[in-house]
């Protein structure tokens, strides 16, 4: 188990997944490919679109929707949406 910093707060990584970001293994197992997305701010963090929307963790930019893995990603996306949209 390792600990690392993301956006000014610490996270613990178990089995290669960062707890506190993205969907759990159980959530991903029950979701189809069209129901999941990768957070554009934190690549590698997969989210279930419906869950992110229910929590307000999404942004619309230039006619497309982007789903975020955590509350910390919203302000970062808002500060430079073009940067994160291009990375998606």
Offer a few descriptive terms.
two-stranded antiparallel ribbon, globular, alpha+beta, 88 residues, three-stranded antiparallel β-sheet, single chain
Q: Any overview of this molecule?
A:
- It is built from four helices and seven strands, in the order βββαββαββαα.
- The protein is an alpha+beta fold.
- It has a three-stranded antiparallel sheet with strand order 1-2-3, with no helix packed on it.
Give a short summary of the structure.
The protein is α+β, with helices and mostly antiparallel strands and 88 residues long. 28% of the residues lie in helices and 31% in strands.
What's the oligomerization state? Answer: single chain
- Given as residue ranges, the uncertain stretches (5+ residues, pLDDT < 50) are 9-19
Helix content: 25-40%
Shape by Cα distribution: globular
Tell me the strand order in the biggest sheet. 1-2-3
Q: Strands, helices and their partners?
A:
Layout: E1 2-6, E2 9-14, E3 17-18, H1 25-29, E4 36-38, E5 46-48, H2 49-54, E6 58-61, E7 64-67, H3 73-79, H4 81-87
Antiparallel strand pairs: 1-2, 2-3, 4-5, 6-7
